[in-house]
Write a structure and sequence with these properties.
heterodimer; A: 298 residues; mainly alpha; 11 helices; B: 306 residues; 76% helix; 0% strand; flat
Chain lengths: 298, 306
């Protein structure tokens, strides 16, 4: 019943189709949503803790800001950080993995031992330290180098950088494995025997074949990075108000929910937006993997 | 076997050394000393404070001193909680985290394995589908969504449990569920997959042909092999519970090591931060080693060599 073409297999997978629709919708509202809303929706006002109504579809928060606006802004920042962080890890992972796999031998085993050591260190704990160590430095750099306008975003730059720096390990392992097995295939041997340069072999023969599996894994890295970002923001080390990210919104909600009143909308709407996105991304990644690698199917 | 353990123990020392080194330099890299306040301290007092907390002298010398102190089991003084040593703080808060983590550990392995086997035994029924759908949600929802949702439902709308705090048995339940949920789900999926694979093997057909009850086949013969992937997940599980407990402790305001960890990052309390990290990593690495050894005993097909 399965078609031979991965593309057809992918299109037949309804979960993937649905996820793509959800993701496209989410991306669209993240990009255009905040601009389409009323100009002052994101400003602090006196109407704090209004329940959802026709005026504020998602209600308002502690500072009287419209929650729908905050969730959309959060979508924008969370998705951007997720994609950018995953892209950083993608580049690091591919370069590291290909170098290790192509070099082989002692260099390979040394490089992979290093990856093992990093694996043994709890990632999120080191993220916390790394961010709090680097943040003041970058902030200072921006202020002194005529980039004052960017200073509020310094935290986001740091987040992207640090998340990319800690998420590349699995990518490197996958790419290295793929490179190792490709390297011994006949067409690569043929290329080498006719005297092609290393550079040619790497960029023309290996890279295109590694990219497929790496791209699949990239779709699984994006939700992981989004999750990490929200973890950090939840703990107060990530994105800071007046900007917003889903983790920050959830953290705000958790703080005001503990008293006797249950302001459920503060929790439910950011949680819904975030969970839907994460689910969709995971479905998409799994679907892509299944479509491209039929052996891996259950 | 002994060679394997010795080699892994050596690797353990290397990892811990890296952890201590990286942590120390990252902490010292942080600009803004621990004594920066609104009011500037007089140079004299500042000098004395730096000397008291052994923060003076060249960086390499500080590093060597610190390494020596850690080897002697002295994690130094906290710079935020004046006059309390990191050892004291850890002695107070680690048992709390350990209790929470331990409960979550047992709940997630036992419940996960049971649910997974059940789902595999009843494949293609609504039990299987329901369990796997629930598992998918539990995995996709981070603990800082599950936790506040549970609080909202079972502490505010239906006041069964306290909103937070520590000390009573009731106050343990919501945090444990929050912490255990995603890993229970993950282990259930893992068990189900490997159980299905095992159930299709010849020796299971033999056991069935012998006339053993289905229950005996599954829980006695199949589970013994199907549980292996779960055992190898126990190492990462411990790591995840450690980091997970940081969030759970902050949601439920539990006085565990996680809260101190986050505060030490925010307060730039270098030695407390380094101390927690060192203890966390030691626990983890040792635990991973134990899991590997247990795995070797469980599965005789695997030869451990260094």
């Amino acid at each position: 019943m399965d078609s031979r073409s991965p593309w057809l297999r992918l299109r037949r997978n309804q979960a993937v189709l649905l996820s793509s629709v959800v993701l496209l919708f989410m991306a669209a509202v993240a990009v255009f949503g905040p601009e389409l809303m009323q100009a002052h929706a994101g400003d602090v006002s006196r109407d704090s803790f209004l329940p959802p109504s026709r005026q504020h579809f998602f209600g308002t928060d502690l500072n009287g800001r419209d929650l729908l606006y905050r969730v959309l802004l959060g979508a924008r920042i969370s998705l951007a950080v997720g994609i950018a962080g995953a892209a950083v890890s993608f580049v690091i992972g591919i370069v590291y993995g290909m170098v290790a796999g192509y070099a082989g031998g002692r260099a390979d085993s040394l490089m992979m031992r290093f990856v093992d050591v990093l694996y043994a260190i709890p990632r999120l704990i080191f993220l916390l330290i790394l961010i709090s160590a680097l943040d003041p430095i970058v902030h200072h750099f921006m202020e002194t180098h005529g980039l004052q306008g960017l200073a509020p975003y310094s935290k986001i730059v740091i987040l992207v950088f640090c998340l990319g720096l800690t998420e590349w390990l699995t990518m490197a392992r996958i790419v290295r494995g793929q490179t190792l097995s490709l390297k011994s295939q006949q067409y690569v041997l043929a290329a080498r025997s006719v005297g092609q340069s290393h550079r040619n072999i790497i960029f023309q023969h290996l890279l295109p074949n590694v990219l497929g599996i790496a791209l699949v894994y990239l779709t699984l890295t994006v939700p992981a990075v989004i999750l990490d970002e929200s973890f950090l923001s939840f703990l107060g080390v990530g994105v800071q108000a007046p900007l917003a990210s889903w983790g920050l919104l959830l953290s705000d909600a958790a703080q005001v929910i503990n008293p006797i009143k249950g302001y459920w909308w503060l929790l439910v709407f950011p949680a819904l937006a975030m969970s839907l996105t994460l689910l969709a991304l995971n479905f998409l990644g799994d679907g892509l993997r299944d479509a491209l690698d039929p052996r891996g199917r259950r | 076997m002994i060679r394997f353990i010795a080699k892994r123990a050596l690797g353990l020392v290397v990892v811990l050394f890296c952890v201590i080194t990286i942590t120390f330099f990252l902490v010292r890299l942080m600009p803004g000393g621990p004594f920066d306040r609104e009011r500037k301290l007089s140079p004299h007092i500042e000098k004395e404070l730096l000397a008291k907390y052994k923060l003076d002298g060249p960086l390499t010398q500080q590093y060597v001193d610190y390494l020596g102190d850690v080897l002697h089991g002295d994690l130094r003084l906290s710079t935020k909680y004046r006059n309390r040593s990191v050892n004291e703080i850890l002695r107070d808060c680690l048992p709390v985290s350990a209790l929470l983590g331990g409960i979550a550990f047992w709940v997630s392995t036992v419940a996960g394995v049971l649910l997974g086997s059940l789902a595999a035994a009843r494949q293609h029924t609504w039990i299987d589908r329901g369990a796997m759908l629930a598992a998918l949600f539990a995995i996709s929802l981070p603990s800082f969504v599950i936790g506040p949702l549970l609080v909202l439902l079972f502490a505010i709308y239906i006041p069964l449990f306290p909103v937070g705090g520590w000390g009573t048995i009731q106050s343990l339940i919501l945090p444990s569920i929050t912490l255990a949920a995603p890993y229970t789900a993950y282990i259930a999926r893992l068990t189900r997959g490997s159980m299905l694979e095992v159930l299709s093997q010849d020796y299971i057909r033999t056991a069935r042909a012998k006339g053993l009850s289905e229950r005996k086949v599954i829980y006695k013969h199949a589970l013994r092999v199907a549980i292996l992937p779960v055992v190898s997940f126990l190492g990462p599980l411990a790591a995840n519970l450690l980091t997970g407990s940081i969030v759970v402790e902050s949601i439920f305001s539990i006085p565990g090591a996680g809260g101190f960890f986050v505060n030490s990052v925010l307060n730039r309390d270098g030695f407390l931060l380094a101390g927690v990290v060192i203890v966390y990593c030691t626990l983890l690495v040792v635990f991973n080693l134990v899991v590997d050894i247990v795995y070797g005993f469980l599965d005789r097909r695997i030869v451990l060599y260094g």
